[in-house]
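S., here's the first fold you wanted:
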Amino acid sequence: MAIATLAACGDDSTSPAYTPTQAVGITLTTAAATAACDKTKFSYTGATITSATLVAAGQTEVAGATGALTVTNPEYCKVIGKLNERVSPVDGKTYSIGFEMRFPTIWNGRFFHQVNGGMDGSIVAAVGDILGGGEASSGLTKGFVTLSSNAGHTAEAGSIGGGVYGIDPQARLDYGYNAVAALTPMAKSLIKNYFGKKPDKSYIVGTSNGGRHTMVAASRLGDQYDGFLAGSPGLNLPKAAVAQLWGAQQLATISTIDATTQRPNLLTSFSLADVQLVSKQIIAKCDALDGLVDNQVNNLVACQSTFNIVTDVQTCSGAADGTCLTSNQKTVLAKMHAGAVNGAGAALYNKFLWSEGIGSSGWRSWKMTNSTGNRDPLSVAFVFMVPPVSPTVLTGAGTTLLDYAINWNGTGFSVDNDAPKIFLSNSTYTESAMSFMTPPDLTMSKMVANHGRMMLVHGAGDPVFSVNDTMNWYDNNFKAKWGANASSYARLFIVPGMGHSRGGPATDQYDMVDALVNWVEKGIAPASITAKARNSTPFSGSSLNTEVPLTWGLGRTRLLCPYPAIAKYNGSGSIEDAVNFSCTAP
């Protein structure tokens, strides 16, 4: 009965007269494409086209982000340009929204806005990254017109990296929401320049900060896109960045002082063996909660009340050695999972859920390296705080990014004094980070009114953007508004064990783009998504996920289910094959 209920959710009962329609493609001859692929043929107010080049079919390229497979592209026109170039009145630097578009000669009638991750700042290849690990295709190979951008700024080289752009108020807004808002009508206009018509259907796809971009677009531009695919979304990204610095400060309390730098070496707080021990114990306690022992935790929610870091991991009598944790390590780990707080105990960000994904290398990287390197300290100091810090704070004698992150000798980020500044604005920075970085309407009313559809995918073991934050949004904002009809418009898929966007002990290869198109254009709601482990052919080299447990069968597949449903074994057939599982209530 649970399965039938999930399927029934595909009916759009709030607007029964709505009928899905499919995009209609256009195929050009090579001669026509050659004539059209001329930079003088593209025109849009405020845009400068710097080049237009017809790229022959057969060119090979990586399909998406790190871990992707190589694909063979079709013939396409590659257009590079910039929009809204200006000189900042604040820092005197020149800014523009740089972009790349690709127009396939055989077009499926759809537009794919590839919103990128991290701090943006560079125009990555507009392949149309479909997300997941080891992508076997791309938006371009599927026939979409694709777009990528730098979100309004170019990352600067040097010790303070790309974050310094945040000194310019408009660059902050472009990064937060305005670049996507400005590029969307431009892209549709250029598509009409090239093909003679605007796209029939438009999709926006991204992971991490790109997932945040997608959710912001669903809120602000819900009437300009038909489908939204948000991976590992940084819904409350400024809060998450603050939590990263707070976490670094907790780790510093149990780290060994480096003999050379005379600073805490955060990598000594938890060794890889330490976190893998925790992962092993989480599996021991929670694996069977879904009714099947398969070295994978599907019932994430139930695991939170089942696993106890204090009692389920042995306490060391001496130093940690991979078979136990010290009492101090347990205390810090428990605090970090409970969520960042200020000195008064008020929450600064959501809690993190216990997942076997803690044993992946990505957990230590995000918590110990990115939190003190050219990412979180820079974004908090220059992009999210009002006012931003002076660049001299991070470049002056005797100070480093690590010093700022851990507030070394009181010279860096103060949780009590600086964390509230992500909510501030002034006459120069007229919008706070929590205003320009987050969706202004968490119910996505504009998207719903336009009959849009959103799919979200999030790793249970994501160490930087809490999956609990996304679950809370779905339960307490979206479902609270739309009730039983919520799953008619948005569905969240949680990947057991997966880290940030990909990796970890997980089945992290999946294609949700096709499922989203079918939902938008055919009215077929995704009752499940089949995901595959990257531990067999054709994966090799960087595409191979070496963190897949050795106990798993080669090419294990699993169903990803719409939250709160989970995948349960049907009782017969191979446990390595998703066909023998069903999405049911926990």
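And the second, which I think is the more interesting of the pair:
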Amino acid sequence: MSSKITQKELSIVKTGLFMIANAMIVHEALVAIGALKGINPLAKIDTDDPRGWLIKEWESILKTNYKSVFEPALKLLKTLPSHPSLKKILLDLAKVAQKAVENRAILRHDLAGRLYHTLLLRDIAKGLATYYTSIPAATLLASLALDLLAINWGSIEEVAKVRIADFACGSGTLLSAVYNEIVDRHIMGTMRPNLSQLHKVLVEKVLYGFDVLEYAVHLTAASLVLRDPTQPVGGTNTFVLPLGVYNGEVHLGSLDIRVIDDYITFPMQKTLFGTISAQAVRVDVDASERPIPKIERPHLVIMNPPFARTGNVGKSTLFGHLPEADRKEVLNKLKELGKKMTDTLKLSGSFGRAGLAAYFLLKAYEVSRPDAVLAFVLPRVFLSGSDWRSVREFMAKSGHFEYIIISDDPEALWAWSENTDLSEILMVYKKCRNCGNGDVTVVYVRKRPSSALEAKVYASLIRTIAGQLEIRQHSALSPTKIVRMDGNEVMYIYKVRESAVREVASVNMNIIMGFHSSHLSEIAYNLYAKKKFLRLDLPLIPLSKYLVQSGKCRTKWENCVGYDVAQTRRRCIKNGKNPVLFLAEVNMNTFSSPKLPSSALRTTYVPDECLKRAGRLLVPGVGRFRLTTIGVVAAYYDQPVLSQAAWTIPLSDEEAKIQALWLNTTPGLIHLLSMRQDSAGGFVQLKKKSLGDLLLIDVPKLSVDIKSKLLNLFDEYANTPMGRILSQLKRASNRQGPRYEIDVEFLELFGANEQDIERLLGIYRDLQNETLFGESD
């Protein structure tokens, strides 16, 4: 028999040790602040029998309180056999706990939550895409969100009227950040702060946490109570909600929450010990269970919701931790909920493929007050993804985006959470009726704050600068304000007209805020909305309209453009008798020059339906691709090509050349990038729905002379190796290289003069500073 430990066994061991370690930390913290009389600190642990010593101490603690922390840890200790290895582990954990509590650090930092997400939540995280919000990000989001609540924070009576909820609280990082921020505001707002009374009010009345993971909720409760364990409280507002099938009923956790008579309620409640009660109950840090009073609709919902989605290529991992039979029922109910939300909120289309984050955002909107604030950590694809279109459109017309804060820090993987490489944003949003046209503050954070204190500095700077920025009369965006610290650029801040955001929300918000520089974002917006680059009018037309008007597509335009990855593999490759050239990958070897090298192609055999979707123009984006590993963003070939990596567009030979040339100019590049769907920094995609909005040159409107010159320009550079995009931009800013030469000749055909070319040099410099393109060769 193999002695190798299995992954499941390892997970059990980690869980057990975490429970013991967390109990040790709480033990040491409570003793350190004098909350436990007669209990010894860990410094006095019996080094010969640490297990027996802990059992004795924790039995004494359980006679007072804190059952949810110490009861499971004590049961585990009693179950474990005495062993030299266990002795060493317990002594080591005791030392770690002692160090963690020095200077009361545990009372203000979410060490337990960090351990919980890092060590234990991985299997469930795969099924929910649950990520750990960094403490600085939580602080920044809470600080900016609380600004929008018209509350006298110095008055405990006023604070007591506020309701703040997190419907996927996890270990409580965001609620802890809100707690800290309110404490700071209370101290600044009154000459006589009463922190003990404020603690009681916050824990008992203000802060509400909900989750489907029991031990995470217990950590939230413990974390809030430990802010001032000397102050007795009547209970925490932390709830465990069922996810799965119980007694024949399907439950979706917090997504089951609904509003009745202006109060939020739950169909069912899961208790601390896993039983199900028809009456909702509250779970407290001392493990007691009490009926839930009516819960008023929240003034603020703050969340880092699960991101898992059903639209993955291959088998989806959504709810993958559930038994398969239960998972199917849960997915079916989730689908039904999506349809109901679409109808109730009158969305323009479905949103299910956007994933759980979309459900939680809409649920928060539904159950919060009419003037509530929503503060969310969201995948950056919220701004750009075609699956998010109806949600973006609804949010844009139903309230006001106060802040969109984009992580633009490659060292932090463009994320606000600590255990993901997905690009993320912080969104602060105000529900309101007849909001009018305000301004949206867009922030690109080039260096993620490294501490809660630094995050508070960031929040203060954002507030101050946002109040100073002004949008010129004929512009959609304000100039960019660059914030520097210690000689480093840490933030780019600008404002956008809300009317412009509403205009593009149903397409892609990268059109108006897709770049760190408002200069580039305004260029992208003017290209899309006005068909202008600088002062030049360009004959541009959406791809969808172009294909239909030109007769290339007899029915819908989507039916004559290439398939996605799965369909290409399933329907086309080696499934027919018609030979066709096939492009398998988009990389520096294949997309290096405006014309595809023949070495990038191979022959495959496909059925008639696939042959009709082959095209001479290829645009990457069927699957995600890296902007750091290509030299062009569109390519031509002199025969029709099929691909699983690039969208193949059926155009004539001359049309394909002109469109490939246009998209590889700098205005074409900026426009195409404004249509991108973000994944992780420069790892992007161009979905078919977005492809329809891509602007092409309206070739029939070109004069014979301009058309001829464009074709000659393409032929001149067709086989020119372009180099990596960032290198192209650096050379172009010095009036060198093929990018500069192509841009000048192309733009002069449409009336550019020397002043326009001079402005082009500044655009090159702005683009070089985008993290999308990585580092140069």
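Why I say that: Confidence is low (pLDDT under 50) at residues 270-281, 311-315. DSSP finds 29 helices and 31 strands in the chain.

Talk tomorrow,
H.
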